Structure formats: structure tokens, C-alpha cells
Amino acid sequence: MSRRPISGEGVPGRLTARTPRVAAALDSMGGFAALVTGVGGRLGRRPLELAAFVEQLEIVGVRSISLTALTAMFSCMVVAIQFTLQMARFGAQDYVGQVVSVSQVRELGPVLTALIAGGRIGAGITAELGAMKVTEQIDAIRSMGADPVRKLVIPRVLAAIVALPILTMTANIVGIGSAMVMARLQSGVAMARFYHASVRAVTMSDVLGGLGKAAFFGALIALIACHQGLVADGGTTGVGRATTRTVVLASLATLVSDFAFTKVLLLLGI
Questions:
Q1: I need a labelling partner for 43 at 20 to 30 A (CA). Which of 20, 68, 70, 84 fits?
Q2: Rounded to whole angstroms, how far apart are CA atoms 40 and 214?
Q3: Contact assessment for residue 220 and residue 124, using Cβ atoms and an 8 Å cutoff
Q4: Helix, strand, or coil here: 198?
Q5: Which residues are CB-contacts of 74 (< 8 A; sequence separation ≥ 6)?
Q6: Domain-located, residue 258
Q7: Residue 66 pLDDT
Q8: Is this model's pTM higher than 0.90 or not?
Q9: Would you say 156 and 222 are in contact if contact means Cβ atoms under 8 Å apart?
Q10: Is residue 26 part of a domain?
Q11: What is the distance between the alpha carbons of residues 160 and 157, in angstroms, rounded to a whole number?
Q12: Would residue 195 count as lying in a domain?
């Protein structure tokens, strides 16, 4: 005769199997919070690693311009095509410039730049720091009495904070210009009319709100990437896993924080 299972039997085993994952997630969150606190406490201290900052600005900013421009160009052209087709049904093609420009400046510019260029930036930072971690170069920096956060993390975070708004502004200019040309070719909307409609619709608060989002996304992506690189282990395989986690986490964090940032801006009337 088979024994009836006791109520709850087997549950402890499942909890035990999940416990390491929960503990690892909590440990990762604690490590990330400690890194954010450490970076915040060191930002105002001198001297600044200026040479490293300029080098990282070139890596994360200049080398991402072409990718950002192409992304903005084709995304805005698609948006312009869709809006001109739909608004042509109501004879409202003249409003295409307003809709495309405001959506690009407030949302599409900062978010797409963070997702595309930010993914490239985050993956590069994690791969670089992860390789230093698994080859014990970071331990060597500590053994010489230097601070890895000051020498490695802060220059990359500052470079991302500066680079993302510049890339976003580039994306806005290229995207709106591409949408202007596409609206002219698709529905015959005069480029001058598109331009003047965009100028009237986009306010300084729209521009500053989008650039503020971009700076916040840059800091968030760089911090996530640095943390994943600093905790990477397991050789080259571990670096690859850390890079993948960075891209996923940075993308999710960008989308979630964009929603929160947008709600805050709307509550403030910006």
C-alpha cells in the first residue's frame, strides 16, 4: 500500500533549490547599491582622472555617433511614413511635423539612443572590466594602493553621462531632418511647413526633459555595466555571461526608468 504524501512534503527541497538564486539576486542588488554609493561619494573628490575620462568619452561617444544617427534616421522615417499615411485620410498632413518632432525629442531620441548606443556602451564596459577582473588586474590595482572605483568606474560613468545627451541631440537633428525629407517624398508636405510646425511644437522644456532622461540613462547604463564587469568570474565564459546580463539589465532599466521619469515630468508640468 502506497503511503499518502504528507501535506507540504517536498516544498523545502524546492525552496532550497531557489534559495541560492534569491541570495545571489539580493547580493547583486546590494553590490550595485554599494557601487552607486561609492561612486556618489567619490565624484566630488580630486584629482579627476582626466585622461581616462577623455579616452572613455571618445570610446562611448564618438564611436557611437554613426550607430545613433542611423538608428534615428530610419526610425523617424518609418514614423513619418506611418503618420503621413494615417493623417492623409483626414487631410491633416500638416500636423506630421509637430507629432514626429515632439515624439522624437521627448521619447524616441533618448530611449532609442539608450537602447542601441547604450547597449553597445554597456557591453564594451562590461567586457573590458570583466577581462581585467578575471585576469586579476583589478586586484593588482588594489595591491598598489589605488582605488579601482576612482580609476576605472568614475571616468566611464562621467563619460556616459556626458555622451548620451550629445548622442541624443545628434539623433534628434538627424531624425527630424530625415522625417522632413520623407514627409515631402511620401505626401508632398512642404519642408518649410514641416520645419516651422516643428519649431512651434517643440519647446525648451521638451528638449531639456529629453536630455535629462539621456543623462540619467547614461549614468544607469554605465553603473550597471561597471558592476557586472567588476563581479564577473569564471574566465572568458563568465565575462560573456556578464556582458549578456548587462545588455538585458540595461535595456530593462532604461524602459522602466523612462516610464517613471515621464510620470515625474508630467507631474511637474514639464
A1: 68
A2: 19
A3: no
A4: helix
A5: 178
A6: yes
A7: 92
A8: no
A9: yes
A10: no
A11: 5
A12: yes
